[in-house]
Amino acid sequence: MLGDLIPVMTGVAMAGRYLGQNIVAMTWIGDGGSSTGAFHEGLNLAAQQRAPLVLIVENNQWAYSTPVARQVPIKNLADRAVAYGIASKIVDGNDVVATYETTKSAVEDCRAGRGPVLIEVKTMRMKGHAQHDPAEYVPKAMFDYWKTQDPIARYETYLTEHKLWDAKKKSEIDARIERELDADQKFAEESPMPPAELAEQGVYCEGCHTIEAEWRRAKKEVIPPASNEEAVWKVADFGAFKGPFAPAAAAAPAPRAAASGGNGAESPLVAHDEPEVAKQTPLRVPFGRGPKDRSVELERRDKVAERPPRHNKPPHKRRRR
Ligand SMILES: Cc1ncc(C[n+]2csc(CCOP(=O)(O)OP(=O)(O)O)c2C)c(N)n1
Ligand SMILES: [Mg+2]
Q1: How much is the average pLDDT of 240-269?
Q2: Nearest residue CA, atom 23 of ligand 1?
């Protein structure tokens, strides 16, 4: 279910800290999924607990058939982070290296105990929401533009320009990919159909595994009556948040997040000014628009304004039918 992994992964991050594992939890959500209740509840919990959670918001501009501008009144989904008091970064999601570097630095921030980081990855969904969706609602020009931003082609250019590979290496990689795909396809197609009874097996463990928490700190530290011993893995500033609203950050606003390669701010906490408001589009319901729909009224007004006057006579002199 959309959004549910955010509270779950927040729990994983908190559990890791409790057990003394220096882990960072990472999960991702779509632009549409970021409008669910679970997203907001989970993110607030992560923020309040300063949980080591990296949340990637994949803004591919469509939530099934709904464009982002019709879903949220803000331009950058990263601006949501300000409301939770957490750091955020915006990255060009079709730039492989920028995405890697931004994510890596977010993981490092989390590991240093600075709390969650939200990364908005700007990209484009090049197909429908799923196999059954031909995505006919996406303007062709939009696909055409984003084809020129293909992340694989851009990364190949990067590798060539930085002399990290040559034509020989590329053809070796291409051949290996083809070989592996062919072998896997052959394996799948030649495998017998699984018996129907298998469908109900192996979903839940019914005692076939022993699941044990991996304690990396002494249990006596966290189990009463010794619970007031100092934690091994201390979280900086826990409960004393000095985030983007700190006066210093407000006095000297950090540069706004760039569309590529992170926010450019020195501090991992982005000093956001006012969230950027997206261009307003008239509200519209796709099916059964009624006369009270604002878009119907606006369209009608536009049409009336465009239409040349049909009658020269003033209305009271026109003959009634
Ligand atoms: C809690 C919940 N609400 C609604 C849905 C129905 N639903 C499935 S996909 C979708 C749109 C998701 O948009 P996005 O996250 O942007 O994914 P994309 O279309 O880009 O794949 C919705 C509303 C769901 N699966 N779960
Ligand atoms: Mg989407």
Answers
A1: 42
A2: 32
Selected residue with higher pLDDT from 144 and 255: 144
Q: How far apart are CA 133 and CA 141, in angstroms?
A: 18
Of 185, 201, 59, nearest to 120 (Cα)?
Answer: 59
Cα within 13 Å of Cα(244), Cβ side? 26
Q: Is 59 helix (H, G, I), strand (E, B) or coil?
A: strand
Strand ranges (E), 62-139 = 62-63, 66-67, 87-92, 117-122
Domain-embedded: residue 108: yes
In a domain, 288, yes or no: yes
Percent of the chain with pLDDT over 90: 59
pLDDT of residue 267: 40
Give residue 4 CA to ligand 1 midpoint distance, Å: 12
Cβ–Cβ < 8 Å for 1, 196: no
Examine residue 196 and state whether it is found in any structural domain, yes or no: no
Atom of ligand 1 lying closest to residue 125 CA: 20
**Do residues 219 and 303 share a domain?**
no
pTM of the model: 0.72
Task: State which residues form the domain around 26.
Answer: 5-149+215-276
Report the range of poorest mean pLDDT among 44-53, 97-106, 114-123, 248-257. 248-257
Q: Which atom of ligand 1 is nearest to the CA of 29?
A: 15
**Known active-site residue 125:** yes
Per annotation, catalytic residue among 64, 100, 137, 158: 137
CATH of the domain at 231: 3.40.50.970
Pocket residues for ligand 1 (CB within 6 Å)? 1-3, 30-33, 36, 60, 62-64, 125, 129
**Number of domains the chain contains:** 2
- Our answer to whether residue 137 is catalytic in this structure is yes
- On whether residue 193 sits in a domain, the answer given is no
Q: Are 143 and 66 in a shared domain?
A: yes
Span of 107-111, 215-219, 295-299, 316-320 with lowest mean pLDDT: 316-320
Specify the DSSP class assigned to residue 78.
G
Does 78 lie in the same domain as 41?
yes
Render pLDDT for 290-299 as a digit per residue (tens, 0 to 9).
Answer: 556 666 677 7
Question: Which atom of ligand 1 sits closest to the CA of residue 2?
Answer: 26
